[in-house]
Specification:
Length: 191
Amino acid sequence: MLNTTSDTHPDDWSPDGRYLVFDRRDVNTGQDLWILPLVGDRKPFPFVQTRGNEGEGQFSPDGRWIAYASDESGTWQVYVQPFPANGAKWQVSTEGGAEPRWRRDGKELFYIGGQRNLTAISIEKGKEFRFGSAKRLFSTQFVGPLASSWAAVKHYAVTADGQRFLVNTAIDDTPDAPITVVLNWTAALKQ
């Protein structure tokens, strides 16, 4: 159990169920990513703590990497760091990015890029983290902000094979209902 007076928001479980990555708000550093061990002393520790805001942490399927969104550059982008952290970090988005999600086999990472395009990058499996160039999959039409300093809304989900997506989309193709205005309605009450 996590006892804290800070605002917190859970993001993801490690594949082995031993860790929880969560967002934690701090008055000095903004929103940060923390890890809560679910075994041993269960003492939470910071994973990414900068002057920017970090959130939306997602463990890779093998538990070796955590993808997350950060505005440390002035624009929300997607980054990947090894877990446990060793100081290495890769920015995988270039035109904005939020809400990273891994394909179940770890060979692709999806995120919402610039102009709310669902984007994919290929990941090479191996000891080092290597990734390909971004590929725009399709445009989305969400309701509300994409990334913020407290992004608790999940705008999409991806199937294990990375071939289908469930996207929370606003649909506005129904005509507005007509409005009827009744004048002098009090006269009708007297009849």
